[in-house]
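Final report, Chapter 2: Outcomes

The project's central promise was a pipeline that accepts a single protein chain and returns its three-dimensional structure in a standardized token representation, suitable for archiving and comparison. That pipeline is now operational. To close this chapter, we reproduce one record exactly as it appears in the project archive, with the input sequence first and the structure output second.
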Amino acid sequence: MIAKAVLLGLAAFCAAVQWQGLRGHLTYQGYHHLTEEAGQGRLEQDDAPQIAALLARPAGEAAALDPRRLRTIAVLHMYNVDLTAAAKGISPLQPSMDEELTAARQAALQHLKAAVIRTPYDGDLWLRMAFSARALGRPQEKVTAYLKWSETMAPHEDWILNRRKSLNP
């Protein structure tokens, strides 16, 4: 009798844990899809309100998430930079004195750093850090270091290689 109660309790606990994971996965599924489309060139201003709540998370809080969700948040921060720059008619790749764009770029870089700590073998994240650092006017040595890490982690991925070539000095 006690064994049945323990097994039933254990089964209920496992089901609760699995439910939390499934709920989190379903919550982020739309965001994962949006990051893929953003990576393929999506630029729709209507997306800004959809991602606003997610982007409001502090980088430290987001760092507690699993690596895939953390990467999604970082990429959506980069997408937010693109949306902000497009709305203001500013190049997303060039330094700017616009305060809102600079704040968005700094937030993106912080989230990219948090994501790359959890997934250091992601050459795309390193490349995105290089783009962010250049747009923020960081020293060229920092941009070059991020590019080197991107090359080391993703030396042969064409979709990253082509974007990396556009940033190389």
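Archive annotation: The longest helix spans residues 2-39.
This record, like all others produced under the grant, will remain available to the consortium after the project formally closes.
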